[in-house]
């Protein structure tokens, strides 16, 4: 058996575990209010990965990482705040529209993250990725538009797109913490953002659900966000960011399929049209990621990974270095030039 087969399994399993979040959340919303559910899901992820992290420390397998600094505090706070509002918007979106639509609309997070990275951080977007962004945007509009004689938009879809925009900003905040432990970042997000949503739920008068539904929500959060991220990280160690991203890109389609099968959601012409466009966009993004990885394997690459509710977002940068040496007497002088090709890949992974 190839050494990479277990890594492929981890990547596909991560996608499948994240995909079940939306249809199962749709069921839980029959028993738990939207804001309360958002809080419990994130708390489940944070608490679950905290326990996993402690187990790694006890076993001695945990690698030491740099601690968060005061200079990174603004990004940390912004990340937590955005991760309070994004899942709340997502839960309201799920409650107002069918889960298959929501699963496909999650792809818009790639668009939001990419555009924000371009505008704020000046990151380069390849022509192939631009075409994929265009296709995802068109498919998102198709899924959101429901009026025939006037411009009427589905409120649920609009809320899901709002969640994607929040996560787009959150991804770009998390990229500033990319040298920290991914597990620790998820624990911080899960616990603090989850507590924030939980407090808002209580303030707005939402009730605590029955114990069985509380446990179910915490467990779903751990599996769909926490465990999914752990599997994603393990896959990325063997496959690299680009290939892991390609395998993980099946998550929205698994989610849409499960919504149709589990919840009995019917297929419409509008959904099928958007589905075909999303599939084409996903293929283009996967090809872009893998092509970039193979093209620049001889050069130095480093990866920035940022993770949240609907996603890990990964930027893979390729750098070329040139050194010129001149000798003057007993002194050797080095001139170092650096060029950033700015190539990057995008991937999703939960929280």
Could you characterize what this model shows?
The chain is mainly alpha-helical and 351 residues long. The chain has one domain. It is built from twelve helices and three strands. The chain has helices at residues 5-19, 21-28, 34-59, 73-96, 99-105, 108-121, 127-144, 155-174, 182-203, 211-248, 251-263, 269-295, and strands at residues 300-307, 312-328, 331-340. A three-stranded antiparallel sheet has the order 1-2-3. A hairpin with a 2-residue loop joins strand 2 and strand 3. The longest helix has 38 residues, at 211-248. The chain is globular.
Domains, number: 1
Largest sheet report: 3 strands, antiparallel
- Helices and strands, in order, run as HHHHHHHHHHHHEEE
Helix share of residues?
A: 55-70%
**Low-pLDDT residue intervals, each spanning 5 or more residues:** 295-308, 315-349
Number of helices, counting only DSSP H or I runs of 4 residues or more? 12
Instruction: Tell me the β content.
Output: 5-15%
* Cα end-to-end separation: 32 Å
Number of DSSP E strands = 3
Strand arrangement across the biggest beta sheet? 1-2-3
Helical/strand content category = mainly alpha
* Mean pLDDT value: 80
Calculate Rg over CA atoms: 21 Å
What form results from the Cα inertia axes?
globular
Summarize this entry quickly.
The protein is mainly α and about 350 residues long.
Topology:
Blueprint: H1 5-19, H2 21-28, H3 34-59, H4 73-96, H5 99-105, H6 108-121, H7 127-144, H8 155-174, H9 182-203, H10 211-248, H11 251-263, H12 269-295, E1 300-307, E2 312-328, E3 331-340
Antiparallel strand pairs: 1-2, 2-3
Helix pairs in contact: 1-10, 1-11, 2-10, 2-11, 3-4, 3-9, 3-10, 4-8, 4-9, 5-11, 6-7, 6-8, 7-12, 10-12
């Amino acid at each position: 058996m190839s050494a990479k087969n277990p890594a492929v399994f981890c990547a596909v399993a991560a996608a499948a575990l994240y995909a079940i979040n939306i249809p199962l959340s749709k069921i839980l919303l029959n028993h738990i209010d939207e804001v309360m559910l958002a809080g419990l899901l994130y708390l489940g992820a944070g608490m679950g990965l905290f326990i996993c992290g402690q187990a790694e420390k006890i076993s001695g397998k945990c690698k030491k990482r740099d601690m968060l600094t005061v200079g990174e505090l603004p990004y940390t706070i912004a990340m937590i705040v955005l991760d309070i509002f994004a899942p709340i918007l997502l839960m309201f979106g799920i409650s107002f529209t069918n889960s298959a639509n929501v699963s496909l609309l999650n792809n818009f997070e790639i668009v939001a993250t990419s555009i924000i990275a371009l505008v704020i951080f000046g990151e380069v977007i390849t022509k192939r990725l631009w075409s994929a962004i265009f296709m995802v945007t068109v498919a998102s509009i198709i899924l959101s538009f429901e009026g025939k004689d006037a411009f009427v938009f589905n409120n649920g879809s609009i809320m899901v797109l709002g969640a994607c925009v929040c996560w787009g900003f959150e991804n770009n905040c998390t990229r500033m913490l990319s040298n920290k432990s991914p597990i620790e970042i998820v624990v911080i997000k899960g616990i603090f953002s989850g507590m924030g949503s939980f407090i808002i739920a209580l303030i707005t008068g939402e009730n605590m659900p029955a114990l069985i539904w509380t446990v179910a929500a915490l467990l779903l959060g751990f599996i769909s966000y926490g465990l999914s991220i752990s599997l994603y990280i393990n896959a990325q160690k063997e496959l690299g960011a680009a290939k892991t991203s390609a395998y993980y890109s099946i998550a929205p389609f698994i989610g849409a399929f499960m919504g149709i099968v589990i919840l009995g959601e019917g297929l419409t012409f509008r959904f099928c049209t958007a589905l075909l466009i999303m599939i084409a966009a996903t293929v283009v993004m996967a090809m872009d990621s893998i092509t970039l990885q193979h093209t620049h394997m001889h050069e130095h690459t480093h990866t920035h990974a940022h993770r949240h509710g609907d996603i890990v977002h990964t930027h893979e940068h390729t750098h070329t270095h040139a050194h010129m040496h001149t000798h003057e007497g007993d002194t050797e002088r080095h001139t170092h030039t650096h060029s950033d090709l700015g190539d990057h890949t995008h991937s999703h992974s939960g929280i």
